[in-house]
Write a structure and sequence with these properties.
Length: 463
């Protein structure tokens, strides 16, 4: 049953929170028919037809912590991961872009993003206008969870989803790092979140959304976050063009130490990303936790082994890349596959990402600076399709959706295809809009000087 569209808000929140003993007895089982990891918050039109909803203090606490963990993934996690991978003269530009994107998208999310993604007056592609500026959201309004009769305060659901909206465009900047104007990044992110991210989030995660209704399985954002960001990054790298001196100048990461620190923070924060998408502190969250551990482990080992066999040496850069590839791949599958399936998914995704990073990118010659497409785009595709396979109970999955493997894989493929097409076309148009309005790329002189000084007037390091 699709209980996502019904907000259970018959009882004031403070009264509900006083019932932890009752909440503890609520069933803690994921609805096998639920195709995604995010319900819809509503304004309680059907509240009179329901019994008093239960809000468990443990669930609320877990979701607040999960929201903070996802923020921790962006700043400082992603910022340090990307920052260490660029040259020293561009370190602060990456930190500044990640920080500013996070702040700008938070404001956009409150003003119109939440309504566009999870409003109740829209259609299969768009959430509607009814929750602009969080209209109608109060301390008493609730969001449904996966357990019938158990809800969350709508504010915590808004906050959790807000962090997803922040990290997705921040991932994109890795594709065109070291050569784009700072104002162009800000304008593009506002437009991209509005016309690409919010519609995809609605289609995949909102009851009544196009892909939701078709039964796509995307526990924590394989399509919404990673394929979306990866495709936008690839298009951006092509539109912006290659860095000056690519293939001639030394462009090695300036600090693998900082990249390793950032990757480690990403791994820790990802537990909020994946396990938080269960929306309750139940057994479903524990499945996402162990899968986030072991899929990542499998991916690291896979990348290390492949590098050792092909290059003769295993690199820290490779291990960090494998780490992120595993996290990306398990994101859509975290609550649907078993631990063994998660390990297999991590191994396969890491190998696929390695091929695109080490073989395909050099062969085709595009400049995806920090492999946003090679890791997030490709890892997201492998993870999304792999979820349809490994969700099958015969392979240790939970059988969410109740479909045959073939049926579910076909639905996953449709979801991947729609996301790729929507994002590619939308991103291409928006890059050109920004290019015509303020320009995308810094001058050659500014690029050679480094964006830290030319764009921000400061340096990360002083000798």
């Amino acid at each position: 049953m699709k209980h996502f569209r019904a907000l259970l808000a018959a009882t004031p929140i403070m009264a509900i929170l006083a019932l932890p003993a009752v909440a503890a007895t609520a069933p803690a089982v994921l609805d096998p028919a639920a195709p995604s990891a995010a319900p819809v918050a509503d304004t309680a039109a059907a509240a009179a037809e329901t019994v008093a909803a239960i809000v468990d203090k443990g669930d609320v606490s877990w979701m607040m912590v999960s929201s903070l963990l996802v923020l921790f993934m962006i700043v400082p996690g992603l910022a340090l991961f990307y920052g260490g991978l660029v040259r020293a003269k561009n370190m602060l530009s990456v930190l500044m872009q990640c920080t500013t994107i996070t702040a700008v998208v938070m404001i956009v999310w409150v003003f119109w993003g939440y309504s566009f993604a999870f409003g109740d007056t829209g259609n299969a592609f768009f959430g509607g206008w009814d929750k602009l500026f969080l209209k109608g959201v109060t301390l008493d309004s609730l969001a449904a969870t996966f357990t019938e009769g158990v809800s969350l305060p709508e504010y915590v659901f808004i906050s959790f989803q807000m962090t997803f909206a922040c990290i997705t465009p921040a991932l994109i900047i890795g594709a065109f790092a070291e050569r784009i104007k700072f104002p162009a990044v800000v304008l593009f992110v506002i437009l991209w979140a509005t016309f690409v991210y919010f519609p995809i989030a609605h289609m995949v995660w909102d009851g009544g959304g196009l892909l939701y209704d078709r039964g796509i399985l995307d526990f924590a954002g394989g399509t919404v976050v990673h394929i979306n960001a990866g495709i936008a990054g690839l298009v951006g790298s092509l539109v912006v063009g290659k860095r000056i001196g690519l293939g001639k100048d030394l462009m090695a990461p300036h600090s693998m130490t900082l990249t390793m620190v950032g990757a480690s923070i990403l791994w820790v924060g990802w537990f909020g990303f994946n396990a938080g998408s269960n929306l309750e502190a139940t057994a479903g969250a524990t499945l996402a936790v162990i899968n986030t551990f072991v899929a990542t482990a499998g991916a690291i080992v896979s990348w290390v082994v492949i590098e050792s066999l092909t290059r003769g040496k295993a690199s820290m850069l490779g291990a960090a890349s494998g780490l992120v590839a595993g996290l990306v791949a398990v994101t859509p599958a975290a609550g649907y596959v078993g631990p063994v399936g998660a390990i297999v998914l991590g191994i396969v995704a890491s190998a696929g990402c390695y091929v695109f990073v080490a073989v395909v990118k050099p062969a085709l010659g595009y400049d995806d600076s920090l492999d946003a497409f090679g890791v997030h785009g490709i890892g997201g595709v492998i993870g999304a399709v792999g979820t349809g396979i490994l969700n099958d109970p015969a392979l240790g999955g939970i059988g969410a959706g109740g479909r045959s493997m073939g049926e579910q894989v076909w639905i996953q493929v449709q979801g991947v295809a729609l996301t790729v097409v929507w994002c590619a076309i939308g991103s291409f148009i928006l890059y050109w809009v920004v290019k015509l309005v303020i320009g995308l790329r810094v001058s050659p002189e500014a690029e050679r000087e480094g964006l830290d000084l030319s764009s921000h007037g400061e340096a990360a390091y002083h000798s």
